[in-house]
Amino acid sequence: MYGSLLLRGALAAAKHGQRGTAQEMLTEAAGAARQVGTDANLRGTAFGPVNAAMHQVNVAVTLGDAGTAIDLARRIDLRAVTVTERKASLLIDVARAYFQWGKYEQAHAALRAAEDTAPQEVVARPAVAILARDLATLAPVSIRRDAEQFASRIGAFR
């Protein structure tokens, strides 16, 4: 529970632009995750090293550090993410990071992968609808039609 609370605190700090506090909490959570050793869904937390790494990605993208988020995400083996919704969350964070970075084709591919993984998660998140709508607007001609169809399919234009 302690590690899970630290991860929540790190995300809250990142949302308020408190980079140092977010990093301190992530570091402390990573230490707790190492002590746990493996991810376990104890008390619904799915806390462990993989979950802590996923939160590092989320904090990086929340702080606008797209390149860092992508580098961190590349270190995570998706097969090690046992909770489907969390796997989709990671892919959505990757899409957000690529979008921030102006790499719209990669952002679209990550959103499609998230949809393939957990379509209900993609449809249910208002932030994904906004991202899909923005992507459809800014995407290069090579993927614009696909991006528009994706946004329409998930109800982003409602």
Describe the structure.
This protein is an all-alpha fold and 158 residues long. The protein has two domains: 1-82, no CATH class; 88-158, Serine Threonine Protein Phosphatase 5, Tetratricopeptide repeat, CATH 1.25.40. 75% of the residues lie in helices and 0% in strands. The protein contains nine helices and no strands. It has helices spanning 2-15, 19-36, 49-62, 66-74, 84-100, 104-117, 119-124, 126-138, 141-153. α3 (49-62) runs parallel beside α5 and α6 runs antiparallel to α8 (126-138). The longest helix is centred in the first third of the chain and has 18 residues, at 19-36. The radius of gyration is 16 Å and the shape is globular.
Strand residues, percent: under 5%
Helical fraction: over 70%
User: Total strand count, please?
Assistant: 0
Write down the domain tally.
2
Low-confidence residue ranges = none
- Overall geometric form: globular
The description of the largest β-sheet is: none
**What number is the mean pLDDT?**
93
Order of helices and strands: HHHHHHHHH
Q: How many helices does DSSP assign?
A: 9
Radius of gyration: 16 Å
Beginning-to-end CA distance, first to last residue:
38 Å
Q: Structural class of the helices, strands and pairings?
A: mainly alpha
